[in-house]
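Entry for the shared binder. Reason: the reviewer on the internal report wants the predicted structure included alongside the sequence.
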Amino acid sequence: MKWAVIVLMLLNGVVWLAPDWLSPAAVQSSASGVLPRVSSLKVEGVSAAPPATAMMCLRVGWFDSREDALILAEQFNQEFAVQEVDRELPSLNWVMIPPQPRDVALAQFRDLYTRGVESYVVSEGEYRNAISLGLFESRAAAESVLEEKMRQNLNVVLVNFPRNRIGYALVLGVEPHRETEMVQAVEAESHGRFDFVEISACEGVASPEKNP
């Protein structure tokens, strides 16, 4: 009888404790043991830092030399770069006496000189031994001279003279929202003597320099 009472007490304890042992929370905790991935966590009220705002570039030109561009750059405590550009300029209009044997060209040049006609003998290139009577930006001015020389019974022609020139542009790094301020500062320092002053995103400006 004594043993029967003990067995009944043990069975009663198992019945009461079994729900706690077999609860889903207990099973999940003992079986998993793995922390959640960081990427799955969501922190309320915290946002990612905004990306840094890109610098803008102020480009000014043209300068006749790199040294001239550096002189202006020294006026500003900004990162800068100097660009060298092969510029194609508008062609000139060339009034000339066409090429001829050198002795003939020299004799005609001496004759023109004694008559007070401004001219020179071309010494090289495609028009070697031609006699130049003037280079003109204006075609109308060139045609006027052409007609005048033709009335003097000179064998003259009008030739298109292409030309290129090396130009230098200064590029200054500008903080956002300071573009107008920097444009005004550059124009004040340069007295507005440049062909262009432009603002754009800083792309393709290699090896920026830094003013000391």
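Summary line for the report: The CA atoms of residues 81 and 207 lie 7 Å apart.
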